[in-house]
Amino acid sequence: MRRLAQHAIVGVGFSAFVATAAVAGLSSPAEQKSAIAVPAAVAISPPAAASADDQLAAERAAAKARANREYTRAKVIAAKLAAKRAKSLGKQSKAISAEHAKIKAEIAAAAKKAAEEKAARARALANRGYEPGVTDPKEIARQILKNKFGYGSSQFSCFNNVIMRESMWKVNATNPSSGAYGIPQALPGSKMASEGSDWRTNPATQIIWGVKYMKDRYGSPCSAWSFKRANGWY
After folding, report:
1. What are the tens digits of pLDDT across the range 44-68?
2. Is residue 51 part of a domain?
């Protein structure tokens, strides 16, 4: 009896399974498709960490970009400074040019003045025969013989020999016997007035008269000296 009951239960279970399967087989195709189409869940993996080489390349690229920005900035600053310097140099150049022109004008004015003074001295030498400010009678005579008469050192030496024995270059020398007067011992002294009214005190006036006297009477100071050596007078 017990064994028959177990078989009966088993049979009932099998029948239930078959019934269920049959019911499932009777379900609509859409329901079957929907059940079949549901996909299984797909796992999404996180991105892999960047490699060390990629990180280094990124750092280098960033550094290069910074360097380019700094270089560009430096170029802009340099250009501004260069423009400012050029402007400043332009102003300085104009100032230097103006100062140069001023100095050039001053030099030209000084040169002109010097030339005028030189010409005046030349005229004075041609007229008077000696430089202004010279007071020594012997030096006055040296310059007069050279500038007014064209005589060199040898003629001056002869002139000096005559004068040293006549008056020792004294402007107011007077011969107590004859009354001859002055550096050349003119007789009378008033003869020298032909060269200037200051013949009594001006050595240049006396010297010019004496040189002319020697030139007119003897031909030159050296000829006058030769005559004086031979005769004791001239």
Report:
1. 555 555 688 889 888 898 999 999 9
2. no
